[in-house]
Amino acid sequence: MAVTSGPRLMIYSQDGLGLGHLRRTTLLASAFLAARPGGSVLTVSDSPMGQFFSTSPGHDYLKLPSIRKVGPGDWRPVSLATPFADVKAMREKLIRVAAQEFRPDVLLVDHMPHGAMGELVPTLKALPHNVRTVLGLRDIVDAPPTVRRRWQVEGAFDALKKYYHDVLVYGCREVFDVAAQYAWPADLGSRVRYCGYVCSPQPPGSPEAMRRRYLRGSPESELVVAMAGGGADGYTLFETLLHAVPALVAERPCRFVVVTGPFLPDAERKELRRLAKGLPVRLVSTVDNSLSHIGCADLVVSMAGYNTTAEVLGFARRALLVPREGPSAEQRMRASRFAERGWVRWLPPESLSPEMLAASMIDALARPDPEVAQPPDLGGTERAVWHLVSRLGDDVLNGSLGPVTVNGHRNIGAATGTGSGGHP
User: Fold this and answer.
1) Is residue 374 one of the residues assigned to a domain?
2) Cβ proximity of 252 and 275 under 8 Å
3) Structural domain of residue 153, as residue ranges?
4) Tally of domains in the chain
5) SS3 245
6) Which of 39, 82, 209, 305 is in Cβ range 3.0-4.6 Å of 6 for a Cys bridge?
7) In this structure, are residues 362 and 244 in contact, taking their beta carbons and an 8 Å threshold?
8) Mean pLDDT of 33-55
9) In 3D, which of 289, 384, 304 has the Cα closest to residue 53?
C-alpha cells in the first residue's frame, strides 16, 4: 500500500464507560476523510469497545487503558488492577508518543481541553507550532457552576488559553451559549464556533422494511423504540418501561423494541428478559443500524444523550426523553431546552414511574409528528469538518485542493454565520 502524503488529523477522545464521544468522533473522522480523500485519521480513545463503529479507509484507532470518572476529580481504572497514577502515566506517554510519530496537521480534542486529569498537557506542550489544536465540545458539558469550578481547579481553562486555536461547539448558541454560561474570558469566547448538531446521515432506503418486520402479524400496531446509548445506566428506564407496557397497550395497540446497549450489566439484562416475558416486547443488546430503528418508530423513548437526541431530531420523530438522574446535569439541561422548543417531550427522572411513563407515552403517541417554527440546525458535521480542513494550510486556504465537500455539501461552513465571532 502506498504511503499517503495527505492531511493528518489526530483525535483524542476520553469515553471510558460509554459510546457517545466515540460515535461522534467517528462521524467527524469519516466526514474529514470524505472531504480530503487520501488523508489519515488516528483516534486515540479509551472506550472499552475499541473500534466499535464502522469507519472509513484511512482511519485507525489507538486504544488506551480504560478509565472512568466516579466523581468530581475522582477517576478509576475500568479493568486494570493498577493504581490510577500508574495508569495515568502510561496513558500520558502513549498519547505523547502517538502524536510525535503520527505528526498530525490538526489535533481535535474531544470534550476535555486538558485530558482526563491533565493527561493531555504533556502532548500539547510537545506539539510543533504548526499543528492546529482544536477543541470539540458537545452542546452542553454540565451545569455552569460545576464546569466553572472543575475547569478552574483541574487546569482546563489554562490549557484552553495556552494551547488552543479554535473551539467547535456541536450545538446552537440559541439553545446554550457555552462561552457565556461557562463565563469564558473574552479572548476565549472569540475562538468559539457554533456548528449545529452533529448527527449521522440518514441511511439509504426506507426504514419501512424494518418496521414491517417488527410489526409482523400486527400491522395496525404502533412501534415504540427505547434506547439508552451504551446502556450502562439504562436499567431504571427500561425496567420502568416494561412495567408501563400493560397500561399502554390497554389504551393503544403497540409493540416495543428495547435496545439495551452493550454496557448494560448481564444481571440487569437477564432481569429485563424475565420482565418482558409475555409482553409485546423485543429485547436486543445492540443493532447494526440505530438510525433505521429511530426512523421506523412511531415514538422513541430514550435517555437524553447527545447522539440519540441529535438523531431523533434528524428524523423529526416523536420522542420522549428521560434524562439520567446524575451525576451530571447535562442530559436534564438538554432535554428541558429541547422540549422548550417543541422538538421533543420530556419526563424529569424524579417523576419516572410506570404510571407517569405510560401516561407520557400515551400522550406523545396521540400527538402528530413535531412541527416547529424554528427547527434544529443539523449541519454540525459539515461545518465542523469545514473548520478542520480550512486550517490545514495555504494550499487549502487558497483553494488549490478544491472545495470542501461533505455529504454533497460544498463549503457549507463558509456560507453560514454560526460562530461567536463569525467565520475566519
Assistant:
1) no
2) no
3) 8-198+379-415
4) 2
5) helix
6) 39
7) no
8) 81
9) 289
